[in-house]
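User: Sequence in, structure out. Go.
Assistant: Echoing your sequence, followed by the C-alpha cells.
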Amino acid sequence: MMAYPDWVEKQRRPGTSIHCIRGKYYLYEVTSVYDKEKKRARAITKGYLGRITEEGLIPPKKKTESNESKYSVKEYGASSVLLDMGKDLHAKLKEVFPDEADELMSLAVLRLVESCPFKRIGLLYERSYLSEMFPGLPMSSASLSGFLRSVGSRREKIVRFMNRMIDGSEHILFDGTGIITKSEHLDINRLGYNSHRQFDPQINLLYAFSSEQHQPVYYRIVPGNVRDVSSFRQAVSESGIQDVTVIADKGFGSAANFGMLEDAQIRYIVPLRRNSGAFDRARLKSGDKGSFDGHFIFQKRVIWYYEYVIDGARYIVFQDSSLRTEEEKDYLQRLEAQHEGYSMEGYLEKQYDFGTILFRTNRTDPPEEIYKLYKTRIEIEQTFDFLKNLLETDVIYLQDKYAVEGWAFINHLSLLLAYLVYQKLRSTDLLSKFSIADFLSHLKYIHRIKTKGSWVLSEISGKTKKLLKALDLDIGSIANLNATRTE
C-alpha cells in the first residue's frame, strides 16, 4: 500500500479508501465482495466522499437550491402508479437488499417508463418525481457501473429474492431469448444461433414462469452456445422449483437432449420439425378425420389430433384447420407470383403438413392440455418481445459478467412491473384496446409541478381520466400518499 502523509491518513476510517490522482488525495466509500474466481475479497467503490487537504476533508459540492429546483415539472403518473402497483415487490426487495431496494426499484421503474439505456438514467431520474420520493440516489454512469457490479456479484441474494416469488403451482421453464453482446471481455458470451439466424456472440436468458401467478419468477443467464439440458437442470436445482415442465423450441429436439431430460426426470413438451423422421403422416394422408383420435376448440379454431408411441416415447400430431387453409393459400400465392423455391412439386410434397405441429412429450395429460400448455409459451414469448423492444435490450455493451448479472436483474424487476400492468389490463378487459406501452404513454404525461415551494398535480387529459377510471386507479389518492411520504 502506498504511504500517505499523516494529514491524509488522518481522514482514513473503516469502509473507506484513499486514492492519489495527479498529486491530489481523494476519499471514497468502499465495500468488499468475495470473488469466487480469485477466491478472495475484492473492494468495490460505492461513492465519492471528498478531497483531502491539509486543512481537512472537502466534501463534494452539494446541489444548491437553484440546482434542486432546476426541474420544477417532473414526470409523475407512470412512475407513481408503478410504485403503487409494485409495493409488495418493493417490500420483498427490502427484505433481501435493504440498502439497495430504493435504487433497484427506481431503476426498474425508469427502465420501464422511459425505455432508456443506463447512461441516460441520471438525467431521467432528475426529471422524474422519483428524485423527490427517493432523493439523493447516485445515478451517474460511474455510480451505476459500480452498482450493477455490486448487485450482480451477489447472485445468491438475487436467487433468494426470486425464491420469494415462487409458489407451489406448476411452472414453465424455457430458453427465453438470445441477446447479442458486443463486449470482448465477457466470458459468458459465445457464438450462438438464435431465431433470427444471427451467429453473433450472445448470451441466453432462461426463464421460469408461474402458471398460476401468470408472471415470471426466475431467470438465469446461460452462455450463448449452451443449448442442452444442463442449463435446465441447473436452473431447476438453483431455483428449487418442484413442479416444472420444460417447453423448448424446435431446435432443441435431439436424441441426446431427450435422453438427458428423461434421466433427470424432468417433464417436457418439445415441438419437432416437420421434416422429423418421427412424423407419422399416415392419418393425415388418408384424409379421413375419422382416423384421428378427436378434436377440440381452441380460441374459436378447430384443432384435430392423433397420437402414437415410438420406442416408448409419446408423440402427438395437431392440425389447426384454419392455419392449414392459411398456409396452403400462402404457398399457392407465392407459387403464382413465381417466388424462388416454390413449385407445384413442392406443394404436393408439403400438402399434408400444412397447419400441423408435432410434439414429443413425457407428460400424461390429454392432448388438449398439452396443446394449451404449449400455447402458454407463445403468450410468454410475447413478453420477451416486450422486454427486447420496450427496454431495448437486444444488444449490450457491458464489460463485466457481474455487471451483466446486475443488468439482467433490473430488467427482471422491470418485467415483473410490466406483468402487473398486463394483469391489470387483462382483468379489466382492456388488453384489446391498450398495450403496456399505451398505458405508460398515457400516464407519463401526468406531472407534478412545483409552485411556491409545493408540488401540485398537473391537469389530466380526458382520455387519460377515462383510462384511469376504467382501471380503478385514483392518481389523486396516490399523490396524497406520496406527498405524505416526501414531507
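User: And one key feature?
Assistant: The domain at 170-399 is CATH 3.90.350 (Transposase Inhibitor Protein From Tn5; Chain A, domain 1).
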